[in-house]
Design a protein that fits this description.
heterodimer; A: 210 residues; 2 domains; 9-stranded antiparallel beta sheet; 23% helix; elongated; B: 233 residues; mainly alpha; globular
Chain lengths: 210, 233
């Protein structure tokens, strides 16, 4: 019987007890938050407890969450070079896309070969930087490197190392209502370049580095 | 009795370690090494994504905190299955729809809501709603709705990783299957601990304190995410 009474008492805590517990939870949470979590996670240290406990050191090495559109932090690799038998090639293309049009430029590269590139557009354009290995498991196989098919971007600059021997390059599509002009320049160890309009390839003339 | 107590202490220790060592656990974030795998992966990789899904669930302390709250006072297996199925339904829908439909949301806002779900459930377990509002919000509906947010949070995280389109559907479904496996594993551990704890006469008295602690964890999660929102802005 005593057990029964006890049980009911604890099962039905008073409003006072609940309010008190909630208040304690909130206060303890705030103390832990300001004394430990914020200094350790973000380096925010209003009580100076982070500095005293060296928690702010964690924040210095902690990485902020990548934003959906922000740059992703890349670990710096040790110096690496890849020797090549011949000089690199250069190419530059000016493209105009009417609304609804798409175009693709691809460079044929050996696995491990490098390329630097820059492209700029007059307004945001949807694109995908991708590649297709010469030996692909199925007809539609491709590897995507950089993709923005929602908002698009008006530029992208970078360096690229081919993960497979095959064709690597960009597909741009004008999803807007106005014409987009794109200027692309590349330099790298590729041996040929092709432009694809509606899937039809066209050989592009590329130049030796002077 | 002695053995039961040892099991209980061990299980509680395992669960608490998820709260005490949040550095080892990773909430919603897929760890950096896993992230680079996800990004470089091409094509379907069923086993790898099942594993990542299970790992996400077992090491995601916000999910675990919420589940502990949900099953805290559920004694019958039938009830547990019902509530967990609703949670599963909720997060599967938004995980699949979010990634396949490309819906974006601010991850801090979603994670803050997930923190609030922990606070809500702890307050509910304290009988707070009936005492203060005179009624208890439909807990099944609440679990379903918070399930939707949990899945949406995960979808947002996965989308940040630029998943390859190649084999995307297979991989997302594999990931979801992994999440369910991880959930069953985590629930089993939580249930063993709770069942052992319930045999103690002090359980009901400690239950109130335990839910206060759970609520504290929820508030910390909310504060952490709200601060993150302003830091990132």
């Amino acid at each position: 019987m005593v057990e029964q009474n006890n049980l009911q008492q604890v099962q039905a805590p008073s409003r006072r007890a609940i309010a008190k517990a909630t208040g304690i939870a909130l206060i303890v949470a705030l103390v832990i938050l300001f004394a430990a979590v914020l200094p350790a996670e973000y380096g925010i240290d209003p009580l100076r407890t982070g500095a005293a406990l060296h928690l702010t050191d964690l924040a210095k090495t902690a990485q902020p969450k990548p934003e959906a559109t922000g740059a992703r932090p890349v670990a710096a690799p040790a110096g690496i070079y890849t020797a090549q038998p011949a000089s690199y090639k250069m190419d530059s293309e000016d493209l105009s896309l009417m609304p609804g049009e798409g175009v693709e430029i691809k460079y044929h590269m050996q696995k491990g070969a490098g390329m630097v590139y820059s492209w700029k557009a007059t307004r945001n354009v949807a694109y995908e930087f991708h590649g297709e290995p010469d030996n692909k498991p199925n007809k539609d196989y491709f590897e995507s490197y950089e993709l923005d098919d929602q908002v698009g971007k008006d530029h992208s600059f970078g360096s690229f190392t081919a993960p497979t021997t095959g064709i690597h390059g960009w597909f741009w599509e004008n999803k807007g209502k106005k014409q987009v002009d794109i200027h692309l320049t590349t330099a790298g160890f590729y041996d040929s370049a092709k432009m694809y309009v509606d899937g039809k390839p066209d050989e592009l003339e590329i130049h030796d580095a002077k | 009795m002695f053995r039961l107590r040892v099991v209980a202490i061990l299980a509680v220790a395992v669960i608490l370690s998820a709260f005490v060592f949040p550095v080892a656990a990773s909430a919603h974030n897929v760890s950096k090494r896993d992230a680079s795998f996800v990004q470089s992966n091409q094509g379907a990789a069923v086993a790898a994504f099942v594993y990542l899904g299970a790992k996400h669930m077992v090491t995601g302390y916000d999910h675990l905190a919420f589940l502990v709250g949900v099953i805290f006072f559920l004694y019958r297996l039938k009830d547990i299955v019902q509530y967990v199925s609703l949670f599963t339904l909720g997060h599967s829908v938004t995980l699949l729809a979010g990634v396949l439909g490309g819906f974006h949301a601010n991850p801090y806002v979603i994670d803050a809501i997930i923190g609030l779900s922990v606070v809500y459930k702890a307050f509910d377990n304290m009988d707070g709603f009936r005492r203060f509002l005179g009624f208890e919000p439909n807990t099944k509906l609440a679990v379903l709705i918070f399930g939707l947010f949990h899945g949406f949070g995960l979808a947002t995280k996965l989308q940040e990783l630029d998943l390859s389109k190649n084999g995307l559907i297979t991989n997302i479904i594999s990931f979801n299957v992994g999440v369910e496996i991880g959930q069953v594993l985590a629930l089993t551990a939580v249930l063993i601990a709770l069942s052992a704890w319930r045999t103690q006469s002090a359980f009901l008295r400690q239950a109130f304190a335990a839910n206060t602690v759970l609520m504290t964890v929820g508030f910390i999660l909310v504060g952490y995410q709200v601060a993150g929102y302003f830091v990132a802005a």
